[in-house]
């Protein structure tokens, strides 16, 4: 399954290189069809998918606002940075909604368990990011642990999904996307933390190509990959419902 997935990704990569505009138009048509056409059959709820899109948009909007207004004053910079971290927490937590809900929609106990856990963890992380009392140095470990905990909490539902639906190609397909998403986020975080490439050639990447820009590109790539996984979940559940569960 994974070999077939990566062969498909390589073929898509060459298609983008040959005619990027045609690829974008075709991809948009397919996305619209995957979202609307199944509604004529047996529609399932879309709120988890829209919650993820809302979290992604809030994260990118908070980041854009932070970069736009941080030069105003020291106090506004402090506020904008806290909002930026809250946006990251919102993106991470809402990213779990589509895979958890659509994987376990026919198993309410595990669905509510995983959704409840990530929601509480996400709310706690957002509060810690926004409340001034938690910005003191002694709470740095708590802040970092909450973000790390949100990321690692995705391992359990993904493994659980694979165990339950090992015979389903959609389970492998979505897992491939989720692994790719993790790779994008992981590389982005590594580049951001190590300040590559500007640490190798100081002054050469002050305008374009520095680590923070590359980090944002990889975050968008990860969010788009997760979006594609969400479309697979929707198509799977729209067509099959709870059959085979």
UniProtKB/TrEMBL annotation:
One of its GO terms (biological process) is response to sucrose. Keywords: Membrane, Metal-binding, Transmembrane, Transmembrane helix, Zinc. Zn(2+) binds at residues 67, 212, 216. Its main location: membrane. It is a multi-pass membrane protein. InterPro entries: AdipoR/HlyIII-related. GO terms for cellular component: membrane. The chain crosses the membrane at residues 49-71, 83-101, 113-134, 146-167, 179-196. It is found in: Membrane. One of its GO terms (molecular function) is metal ion binding. Belongs to the ADIPOR family. PANTHER family: ADIPONECTIN RECEPTOR PROTEIN, ADIPOR/PROGESTIN RECEPTOR-RELATED. This is Heptahelical transmembrane protein 4-like. It comes from Salix udensis.
């Amino acid at each position: 399954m994974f070999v077939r997935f990566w062969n498909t990704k390589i073929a898509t990569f060459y298609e983008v290189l040959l005619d990027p505009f045609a690829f974008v138009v075709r991809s948009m048509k397919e996305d619209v069809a995957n979202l609307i056409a199944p509604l004529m059959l047996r529609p399932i709820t879309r709120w988890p998918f829209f919650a993820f899109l809302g979290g992604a948009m809030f994260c990118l909007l908070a980041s854009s606002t932070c970069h736009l207004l941080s030069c105003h004053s020291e106090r506004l910079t402090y506020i904008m940075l806290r909002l930026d971290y809250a946006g990251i927490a919102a993106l991470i937590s809402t990213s779990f909604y589509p895979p958890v809900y659509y994987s376990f929609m026919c198993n309410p106990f595990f669905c509510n368990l995983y959704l409840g856990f990530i929601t509480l963890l996400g709310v706690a992380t957002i509060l810690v990011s926004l409340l001034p009392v938690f910005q003191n140095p002694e709470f740095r470990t708590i802040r970092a642990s909450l973000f790390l905990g949100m990321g690692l909490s995705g391992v359990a539902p993904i493994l659980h999904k694979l165990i339950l639906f090992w015979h389903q190609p959609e389970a492998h397909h979505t897992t491939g996307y989720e692994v790719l998403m993790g790779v994008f986020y992981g590389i982005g975080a590594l580049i951001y933390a190590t300040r590559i490439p500007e640490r190798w050639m100081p002054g050469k990447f002050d305008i374009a190509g520095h680590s923070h820009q590359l980090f944002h590109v990889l975050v968008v790539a990860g969010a788009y990959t997760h979006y594609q996984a969400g479309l697979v979940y929707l198509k799977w559940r729209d067509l099959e419902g709870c059959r085979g569960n």
